[in-house]
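re: ur msg from earlier - yeah i can do the 2-oxo-3-(phosphonooxy)propanoic acid complex, just paste it... oh wait u already did. ok heres what im feeding in:
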Amino acid sequence: MYKVLTFDNISSRGLDRLPRERFEVSSEIQHPDAVLLRSAKLHEWDVPDTLKAVGRAGAGVNNVPVDAMSARGIPVFNAPGANANAVKELVLAGMFLAARNVCAAWAFAESLEGDDAAMNKEAEAGKKQFTGFELPGRTLGVIGLGAVGVNIANAAAGLGMKVIGYDPKITVRNAWNLESNVTRAQTVDEVMAASDMVTLHVPEIEETRGMINGARLAAAREGQVLLNFARAGVVDDDAIIKALDEGRLSSYICDFPAAALKGNSKVVALPHIGASTNEAQENCAIMAADEIRDFLETGNVTNSVNFPELILPRNTDGDRLTVVNANVPNMLGQISSALAEAGLNIDDMYNKSRGELAYSVADVDGTIPPAVVERLEGIEGVLKVRVI
Ligand SMILES: NC(=O)C1=CN([C@@H]2O[C@H](COP(=O)(O)OP(=O)(O)OC[C@H]3O[C@@H](n4cnc5c(N)ncnc54)[C@H](O)[C@@H]3O)[C@@H](O)[C@H]2O)C=CC1
Ligand SMILES: O=C(O)C(=O)COP(=O)(O)O
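and the outut:
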């Protein structure tokens, strides 16, 4: 029986992928084999020795201590693209809100007093302050052309916008998916200078933290709309407020409330609802649950952010050994010697590395005794050993 600990509300459509005769799933489980979570922060969590996998039912993994998990030989899985359409739709909504001053206009209409005739008179007199602009012909800058960024770039191009994108590490797949009229910028500053609206879709990592700062905003086209549905940490809120005060930015639409932003009429801060649609939550939960189930039951790895992709079909009746180790020479030799000395023959084997980690899956022609596992665990650089 595998034990899966859940943090946050994970869609039941995803949890249903874990058959209860083989998986105990609860938010209060002790000694879990795996964790399924959304945005709960795992950085302060006391990682139990039993943990074998982490499944993030979403895209960003900045809430998970990925390096610490790697050091323990634990894969972190996520759900790439599973909520991208939900984010795209909310960003488009944000673009329309900003272009037509919808929030300020709505607040104005709510503030009107008197009978219908009086309200109507005031509405007609006041509406000129909310004159907006239309999107065709305007330029949208997209920083980060991953699953979300590509969706938005293509949708904006479909609305008749000029689109300029920046992503120095764009994948070949995303580049193929991008509309051919999306132009490529070489720097963030180039995007800031060329765009009427800029939208951020980078992960929060060391190199993106605070990437939209005072200097970058100084390069922004006058009156720019900035949208941030990536992470709070990729912008400097104080610099945003200054740019709004100076008119460099006309509005800031984001998914991350903060004290500094509160009460500012040029800011719309939503409560991190970019992925909060039933569709996205089902997609994410199903993908993450499938990934951890497959890993626990077979050792196969799909969509991990720290482990190599590895799928070995199982064709024998003997045990399967999985070993996670530091990516250094002579590990495979030591693993196969330990098996050979126990009289076990390897029927099938697959080994892959990613950065400082290596991962091996070996199918043998018999039962692996506990002494072999102990011996493997004793090898310097071995981080995790499992027999499935
Ligand atoms: N508001 C919300 O509810 C949601 C927020 N997100 C956030 O959006 C981020 C992006 O999501 P996806 O597009 O699904 O992820 P993704 O991994 O498909 O795309 C991220 C892209 O950013 C690029 N990138 C990395 N560093 C960069 C840099 N310095 N400059 C420019 N581009 C850079 C990568 O090459 C990649 O193409 C997530 O990491 C998460 O933080 C994602 C989903 C929902
Ligand atoms: O997928 C992401 O990166 C998100 O930010 C969505 O997070 P959530 O599932 O709403 O907690």
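cool cool. The mean pLDDT is 97. ping me if u need the other ligands too
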